[in-house]
Inverse folding.
């Protein structure tokens, strides 16, 4: 997969794995990552799908309607890429924290829904429920931050609450940070994620 790897100054800090939103690239979240954990190594991916020229991590049939077969295929592709990248760059495979926005939060959520021990934690900005009707792996004590908007037209407040319940039922410790905005990623949401990260993952 197309990506950037930047080695951090603190080998013990989690490596941040970045997943951009629709139309983003592997550069989109680099500044945000520095605000969350300036000393961390960063592995930032570009989604393999193009929708009208816009990179994404999996196909969709319409806005908010996922192509489930492609989501499953692409989730496995990312999972395997993390193993390959860990071997190539020598970062600790067991100390990865995802940061995803929108479509990127959805692929990160899908990784968590499908694979045990894939991530040590995650910051999901404006995620949806990636799949319904499957049994989640044991997520005991996995810290997950969800940034949500009370007026988000793509990820409704109910869907955010549904995602929170599914993750909690699987054992994850979930914190939801609400903004009174829509789907955009706000500065105060990033600040809240940075505080949460220091408390839960450093
Ligand atoms: C998605 O397709 O993952 C969601 O609708 C979010 C988006 O990318 O707009």
């Amino acid at each position: 997969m197309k990506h950037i790897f930047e080695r951090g100054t603190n080998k013990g800090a989690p490596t941040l794995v970045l997943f951009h939103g629709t139309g983003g690239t592997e550069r989109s979240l680099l500044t945000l990552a520095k605000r969350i954990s300036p000393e961390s190594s960063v592995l930032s991916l570009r989604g393999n799908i193009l929708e009208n020229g816009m990179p994404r991590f999996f196909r969709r049939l319409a806005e908010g309607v996922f192509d489930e077969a492609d989501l499953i295929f692409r989730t496995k592709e990312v999972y395997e890429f993390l193993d390959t990248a860990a071997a190539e760059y020598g970062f600790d495979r067991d100390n990865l924290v995802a940061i995803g926005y929108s479509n990127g939060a959805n692929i990160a959520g899908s990784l968590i829904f499908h694979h045990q021990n894939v991530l040590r934690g995650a910051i999901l900005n404006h995620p949806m429920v990636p799949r319904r009707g499957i049994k989640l792996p044991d997520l005991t004590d996995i810290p997950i931050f969800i940034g949500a908007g009370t007026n988000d037209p793509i990820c409704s407040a109910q869907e955010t609450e549904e995602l929170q319940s599914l993750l909690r039922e699987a054992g994850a410790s979930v914190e939801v940070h609400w903004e009174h905005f829509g789907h955009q990623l706000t500065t105060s949401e990033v600040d809240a994620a940075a505080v949460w990260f220091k408390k839960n993952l450093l």
